[in-house]
Amino acid sequence: MKERKKLLRAIGLMSLAMLLVVGLILTGAGCKPAAREKPMYNVVCGPEGNTGYVVGGGVFPFMDEWTGGKVNVLPIAAGSMAALRNMSAGEDIQGIFTNHAALEQMWTNTGPFAEKPLKEKLYQTWYWSPTGWILVARADSGIRSYSDLVGKTICVGDAKGSYVPYVIDAVKAMGLWDKVENKFMSIGELPEALKTGVVDACISAIAGLIAASPWTEKIALYNDIVVLTMTEEQIAALKAVPPLAFGYAPATSYAQDVGVDKIPTIVTYYGYHFAEDTDADIVYAITKAWFEHPEHLSKVHVVAKTFTERWEEITREGISAAPHVPVHPGAARYYKEIGVWQDNWTEAK
């Protein structure tokens, strides 16, 4: 009998030990159960060095502590047009840094999307950087205005750039596109192309409408340049063709004299915009975090200062400039909370 009791006791102890081992495994060796990992959201911010990538890379890492998800910043050298097509083809992309004109063309199946409309689209989410596109010429060229471009060779940028169809439409609106020759080039080729006369005028950009973009500064470093002026009639023609927009940037956007007191620009509103199927709660949280933590924006890039000072104006102008594009429901909820929502905007369902 004693032997039987010993055997039963041993079996009981072994069973208890096994239960403890299983329990330790299931509970993480006696610790609290691991917190559920936050979902990952991939946001394409353009090529490395691009303003969208610099700002996104500087701010999005903080989103983990402010929101219910992690934002993974992805560079893509091919530009946002390629990213839009990749997203539509099923690639794991939830957000893209792009402009209001690309969104408008996407939703109306015009411009680069006329022949190949996208199945999956982005909703307007938030804008933070108005960019002024301009054409510049060498100071010794005798070219001073857009009207002087008749019979000249220009470059409006890389054919893959999301801004290029927009700039082409602007030149068409001014009645000049069929009167010039255009050569598509990468922005890296432009300083030398302008210097050697391969082109008579080329595209440049004023980021945030306050500072020449780094690649634009390189053009000015290689060449003594002037910014081309527009007539009042040309400005009116731009404004009359949505989603084209117009705005002035200060001459101080350049370190040197560029021949004008203020710089007339073709404006695009850039920002981060999320896909149709991205969870509304996470988009709400990310939008709210972006707007309510301006201290991080100011630190990562001088252009972000424009948003911290003019966030309401930029939001209203950007969304209104793309009237056919619905606003993501997560962003719409936040805009209604802070009182910037406009009745003529469309909330996505």
What does this structure look like?
- With 349 residues, the protein is α/β, with parallel strands linked by helices.
- The protein folds into two domains: 40-130 and 269-338, Periplasmic binding protein-like II (D-Maltodextrin-Binding Protein, domain 2, 3-Layer(aba) Sandwich); 131-266, D-Maltodextrin-Binding Protein, domain 2.
- Helix content is 39%, strand content 19%.
- The protein has 13 helices and eleven strands.
- Strands 1, 2, 3, 4, 5, 6, 7, 8, 9, 10 and 11 form an eleven-stranded mixed beta sheet that branches.
- Helix 2 crosses helix 11 (294-300) and helix 11 packs across helix 12.
- The radius of gyration is 27 Å and the shape is globular.
- The termini are far apart.
- The relative contact order is 0.16.
- Mean pLDDT is 85; it is low at 1-36.
